[in-house]
Amino acid sequence: MIPNTTLFQNIFLLLAYLLGSIPTAVWVSKYFFKTDIREHGSGNAGTTNTLRVLGKKPAIFVLAVDLLKGLVAVKLALLFDDGFNNTNHWMNLGCVYGMAAVIGHIYPVFAGFRGGKGIATLFGMILGLNLLVALILAVLFFSIVLISKYVSLGSILSSIAMPMFIWLLFPGSDFNKLHVMSIAVPLLVIYTHRENIQRLRNGVESKTNLVGGKKQA
Questions:
Q1: Which end of the chain has fewer CB atoms surrounding its CB within 10 Å, N or C?
Q2: Can you tell me the distance from the alpha carbon of 208 to that of 212, in angstroms, rounded to the nearest whole number?
Q3: Angle between helix 151-169 and 176-192 (nearest 10)
Q4: CA-angle at 24, arms to 193 and 79, nearest 5°
Q5: How far is 132 from 126, CA to CA, in rounded Å?
Q6: CA angle 43, 134, 205 (to 5 degrees)
Q7: What does the alpha-carbon distance between residue 8 and residue 82 come to, in Å, rounded to a whole number?
Q8: DSSP code for 2
Q9: Which DSSP state fits 115?
């Protein structure tokens, strides 16, 4: 176990950010396809653009790694000596580390601070914090996407619904940082999807077939 001091907490906060900064889609596109995913499609370094530009297998790999970044960042809190004994402290610290990884994914130091929109890493963070909430949001996300074919819409609506599930499952003020995180996440998702929202309003947002990975009109 690691001593639970401010110094070590800050060191691990930096590690969580650096973990989130691993630009999976960028590295996969450069090293295996000799291109930069950010120069194609939507220009986003995430799973959806990887699916559209590079195909299903690279997209699955990018999704898995980006998800793990958020999950592992949350679990870093368990390395401290009271991580297992103080659930309140672990949850709060896990929220902070998870959000640091998400910020790293959006603004990665290893890729010129041009990353993705953070959805997969956000889901990994939520998965690390509470499995039930993660499963509910996953069902909601895929239902919206399968019906509408808009990945961006699924991301936005499921993130907006997240605070309701967090507050229902964790009422009161015990997990205060969890509640703050539940409000911050939809605001962050709306911000990173601001261009998608405009395209949705104008009726020109690209549709995606999650099964085939083909871009639709």
A1: C
A2: 8
A3: 170
A4: 100
A5: 9
A6: 30
A7: 13
A8: B
A9: -
